[in-house]
Structures
1.
Amino acid sequence: MEKLCVHTMTTKPWSLDDCARHYPAAGVEGITVWRQYLEGRDPLSAGAMLRDAGLDIVALCRGGFFPAKNATGLQAAIDDNLRAIEMAEALGAPQIVLVCGAVPGQPLEESRRQITEGIAAILPVARQANIRLAIEPLHPMYADDRSAINTMAQAHAICDALGSPAHLGIAVDVYHVWWDETLEAQIKLAGERNRLFAFHVCDWKTPTTDLLNDRGLMGEGCIPIRKIKSWVNAAGFNGFNEVEIFSNKYWSMDQNEYLQRITSAYQQHVL
Ligand code: ZN
């Protein structure tokens, strides 16, 4: 179970307290906290509660969504990301995952320009707070409204355009990038440039019946997870393997039983 991290969204029906109680008992060592789990609570004490439970806080999810139709929207996005940095600092999360955003109908080039500028605007604050920003390329099926960054190469391009700052890197989520014929080379490059910040696992089911909430448990689909993990490790990444599954099917089952299935799938198909 070494290096197993679970995203709070994976066990969506559970509160943060439920996660703190059940994750360590199942052998989970790390947790990535989604922001909605901190609504109405003090991130400082939430962080202490998770550490007291024996969990490493791996990341805060998520920042991003930079593109907008007008200046007010662009500024609102930057303000929201600044709040995320404050929240991560208080929580004790070393990094924030960025789902970069897109505006339906707006050219992707324009969205990418806005994303680059948005990241540039928050980067000095992140550096000051010692919080790393991890750009997560999203599968192209989300290019219309969730992210105009759909490949590792596009994520690299933003890091390059901003001068390769040490606090900016990439989150590799197998669900989004498994199909990319250049994936091995892109992961290798991320290692060479010290920007390989996170590794997320789940599986791609055939057929996928919901674009958002029908991800599979590792081993249930067609993603060569172990192969991709070997590339990530060869590139020097030795952080947590984060299980991030959005699934209406799994959210409707008993979450303790589901967590058992996660840990067993982790041992069989990730390690
Ligand atoms: Zn992810």
2.
Amino acid sequence: MSDTNTALDCLIIGSGPAGYTAAIYAARADMNPVMYTGMEPGGQLTTTTEVDNFPGYPNGTDGTAMMEDLKNQATRFGTDVRFGIATKVDLSKEIGGIHKVYVSDGAEEQEVLAKTVIISTGASAKYLGLESEQRLIGGGVSACATCDGFFYKGQDVIVVGGGDTAAEEATYLAKLCRKVTMLVRKDEMRASKAMQHRVNGTKNLEVLYNTELDEVLGGMVVEGVRIVNNQTQEKRELEVTGVFIAIGHKPNTDMFKGVLDMDETGYLITGAKSTKTNIPGVFAAGDVQDKEYRQAITAAGTGCMAALDAERYLASVEDMIEA
Ligand code: NDP
């Protein structure tokens, strides 16, 4: 029978570390999970080069290869991985209710019914949108200092942004790099006072206020940047090999607006020490509900939690029906 008339035990939306870890656990618990990969199978990690900080890879690994490993592990236990994008949802508010998720593979849309839904749609780093920035992503332009900072040891880099993420990334990079220059577009930082204090106390970190990135210079790899003072319009070039964009993330939650509880920036809200959303049988794991840590390993951890939460929920619904 097709999904349209049989409710799945577990539907997973999104294929980053959270989704695949949820799939491994759900498959091993005989929940026969079906995963829809989303637009970018493998998620954000497929846009980085090397991953050096995921436990279990003593020599590091390639982000895309790691996601392939996770996929193979999930399918080994029977996860049905399908290419498709969830476009809208009709979630039941009843305990034991059946959720409807509409998915599209680009050609046609179908309705998928599921008893539990694990949302692991992730978040996308925001970029400035400059042509040169987009062209050099993976060639010196990055949106993740903890992922890629190591490769710029002893070199000069810039960080764009003035929020907590930018401040945190800049101070992290300052420990590895020769010099870090932070470009802040206003005459003040948005980051918390504590983070600003840390930035100001870091010797090899210079903050340029009222300054924006005009262009990333270089053919195949970053060789420098042209920056502009937005008060005087004065432009100048800096020789750097790394450009870290830290202007915020956007959680991929548009389709859940008005349905699931989210904070003012769109991150799904889950219960303390759980992955439960405000709808029974619907769980959220990974960056879609985490603006604090945003690491592959923390995403994987919450993916595991979501599968365990889903399994317990299904068991409690079955107990209710039997009683
Ligand atoms: P924020 O939205 O807080 O900050 C984004 C920064 O990028 C701002 O300085 C903003 O400038 C700047 N920016 C945005 N668009 C552009 C652009 N086009 N060109 C240049 N600069 C731009 O995002 P964060 O990721 O820093 O933080 C998100 C949330 O996560 C916050 O609530 C933060 O407090 C929290 N967080 C907490 C941490 C912690 O507690 N350890 C660590 C990291 C994040 P402007 O101010 O001019 O708008």
